[in-house]
Amino acid sequence: MIVKTLPKLIVILGPTATGKTKLAVDLASKLNGEIISADSRQIYKGMNIGTGKDLKEYKKTKYHLIDVVNPNTRFNVAKYKKKVLNTIKNIIKRNKVPFLVGGTGLYISSIIDNYDIPQIKPNKKTREKINKLSKKDQIKLLKKLDKKSLEFIDIDNPRRLERALEVCLNGQKFSTSRKKGKPLFNILQIGLTFPREKINKKIDQRVDKMIKTGLIKETEKIIKKYGKKSAPLQTIGYAEIIDFLNKKTTLKKVVQLIKTHTHQFAKRQMTWFKRDKNINWIKNKTEATKLIRQFLNQ
Description:
The chain is of the alpha/beta class. It folds into two domains: 8-117 and 178-296, 3-Layer(aba) Sandwich (Rossmann fold), CATH 3.40.50.300; 120-177. It is 47% helix and 10% strand. The protein has helices at 20-30, 77-93, 105-112, 124-131, 135-146, 158-169, 196-212, 215-226, 238-245, 251-273, 285-296; strands at residues 8-13, 33-38, 63-64, 97-102, 186-192, 279-282. The longest helix has 23 residues, at 251-273. The two termini are 21 Å apart.
């Protein structure tokens, strides 16, 4: 009997502001790798400062699934999974090592666990019902219908929140609607994190830098081109800036809100990742390099 060996995939994950991209670039450049982004916002064109999309960080390392679609284009985990599987296939054909890198837990899990994504088509009436609710009421309704889903979805991403409610209102629980399939890859997961105080400090420094390097102008530019209602603009960083542009608050308060919301988001990311006991949490690049070399030589 011939046993087919699964292709190898390296995953580097962790909460925001932990240096995942820098680590991945250092490792991929040494180990003949290419990087696939697992960031649900960096897929959007023009959203650079607010998503921490520093393309210079990649240097000569080839990267994928960044700047894929316009902010007014609907994009979901099913589309993401399809694109990633095709990208991995092409990377392996070139005899390169695929590195899946990012902090969007659902995107990463869709590949690792080969999720069978629920094929519930968007329903106009259901969407209209959901959109009439405030964000607070949407969260309240989801808590009533499927409390467990609030443990892992990004409630600051309106599309994630709407999709979870849409699935629930169609008779399924969003938290249990995704079924795991047979493994597609032999996977090594490497997790990068720090104590929460250090992560929060790094987040604060990053937010200050975003403001200084033009987050307000970037938001204005995206609004002018795609409109205020583009879903990605309702996410952390952009949503608060829109309130400032609408003169609902001061810049000082906006900056603090972005920091606070990002702290909360990083905490939710860790809640998601901690459920997976297959993640190898590392302290430095040396540990990561050792793990990867052992994995590739198996």
